[in-house]
Specification:
Blueprint lengths: L2 H13 L17 E6 L3 E3 L4 E7 L7 E11 L11 E14 L9 H6 L5 E2 L16 E3 L14 E5 L6 E13 L6 H5 L3 H4 L38 E13 L5 E9 L19 E3 L11 E9 L4 E10 L3 E7 L5 E9 L12 E4 L10 E2 L4 E9 L4 E4 L1 E8 L6 H22 L4
Helix pairs in contact: 1-5
């Protein structure tokens, strides 16, 4: 057999996108169901912070979730503008609770049991330390214009707890009422000086040099107000809409990852703070050395199990420019760019990040290998200082076409070899 022909056959076989054969009964996709829910009500006054956990309603049974969208609304169901109530973040994750346990899970008592045999968080497949970024869904101010839809026949499987457990769902809402505040931007960035705090939510002294972030804008704190400003409290809800399908052989499973740009890549079973730090600061630029005033943070993180990328999006805060993800060989995998509002209506608030672009590559066209080192880059404007910013990358991969890093490198070598042979034929004599 001709050597060139053999290489060509091998290259085609290795490069052919793998996809499981669908059952004959799966010629028609399952009917998508949809329902809108509301969290328990919470009340906020000017300058106040709400950062609570709620057990929430969720579709019952073994299902595949296709979409999860949320926003803050008032008593009439009207969207509330970010300029009044800033949504720092919301996250939703399931947990498995022993059937014998009581349902009093909000606040400290619940967190004391997380990770124990009584309450287990199955969580996503992300690589952060235990109980850090365990959510399947979660965004912030950008929630109204960021899609969470899982395309095609793919879905996130939930509702199948171990025997003796039941599945419940927890929502964490962190919101800041900035009406009448002295420095709204500083309030939503949780500047410690504006909240007049020196200890964190657990009563521990703040770390030396800590200027702002989650440890300064917790439940019960209040941001500095303009003298004499008064306004009534608002009764608010987190309204969320879920789309799902019943789980059957027609649904293709996925794995959800969350990568944190602040991950130190170190793990310490004694110190849970070692690993993903969740937030970081962006120092103000020196225009003489950085005329574009762009602060870029990079990291290289290993993905345990690869597959085809089905969906990707970043989560960032005010001042964000976007995040990118590249493979170990430098190929571009996904970029998520910040969208800013330019008006005053909910979803178009000037100066706020109101959306993040998403990636929906055709399944099988953009893949990562098991054990591949991914390169993440986060960009923020540093024209002014920003405190307590985040840079998370959500990635959803198919669970049916994984390759090892060794197989992936073989694919790349054969691909380039194929290209060389093809070019050599173009220049061969007649």
């Amino acid at each position: 057999m001709d050597g060139k022909f053999l290489v060509l056959v091998v290259a085609i076989v290795l490069l052919w996108p793998s996809s499981p054969a669908e059952s004959k009964d799966c010629s028609r996709s399952s009917r998508i169901q949809k329902k809108t829910y509301k969290s328990p009500a919470f009340s906020m006054g000017p300058g106040e912070v709400q950062n609570r956990n709620y057990t929430i309603e969720f579709p019952k049974g073994h299902i595949g979730v296709k979409n999860f969208q949320g926003e803050i609304v008032d008593e009439l169901g009207n969207p509330v503008p970010l300029s009044e109530v800033y949504l720092h973040h919301w996250v939703v994750f399931g947990f498995h609770l022993k059937s014998s346990e009581r349902k009093e899970l909000v606040r400290g008592g619940f967190h004391d049991r997380l990770g124990s045999s009584a309450a287990i968080i199955p969580g996503n497949d992300g690589i952060c330390q235990q109980n850090v970024h365990p959510q399947f869904w979660g965004l912030g101010a950008e929630t109204r214009h960021t899609s969470y839809f899982v395309p095609g026949s793919y879905a996130i499987g939930v509702g199948n707890p171990p025997e003796g457990y039941k599945e419940l769902w927890l929502l964490n809402v962190h919101a800041i009422d900035t009406r009448g505040t002295y420095d709204p931007q500083g309030c939503l960035e949780c500047r410690c000086s504006l909240y007049n705090v020196t200890i964190d939510a657990s009563g521990q002294p703040l770390k030396q040099g800590y200027k702002g972030g989650l440890h300064c804008c917790y439940e019960g704190t209040k941001c500095a107000m303009k003298l004499g400003f008064q306004a009534p409290k608002k009764t608010l809800y987190m309204q969320y809409t879920i789309e799902w399908v019943e789980w059957d052989e027609c649904v293709r499973p996925v794995r959800a990852y969350i990568f944190d740009i602040t991950d130190s890549r170190k793990r310490d079973p004694v110190d849970p703070q070692v690993g993903c730090q969740i937030e970081y600061d962006v120092p103000a630029c020196d225009p003489s050395s950085n005329p574009d005033c762009i602060y870029q943070l990079e990291n290289h993180l290993v993905i345990p199990k690869g597959g085809s990328i089905i969906y990707g999006v970043a989560h960032q805060h005010a001042g964000a420019m976007g995040m990118t993800m590249h493979g170990e060989d430098g190929r571009h995998l996904c970029s998520s760019i910040a969208l800013y509002g330019n008006g005053s209506t909910p979803g178009n608030e000037a100066g706020y990040v109101v959306g993040m672009s998403t990636c929906f590559p055709e399944p099988g066209t953009v893949t990562v290998a098991s054990g591949e080192k991914l390169h993440l880059s986060s960009s923020y404007s540093s024209a002014q200082e920003h405190t307590g910013v985040m840079a998370l990358f959500y990635l959803i991969l198919s669970d049916d076409d994984t390759v090892s890093l060794r197989q992936f490198k073989v694919r790349v070598v054969n691909f380039y070899l194929f290209q060389v042979l093809r070019l050599s034929d173009c220049f061969s004599p007649l």
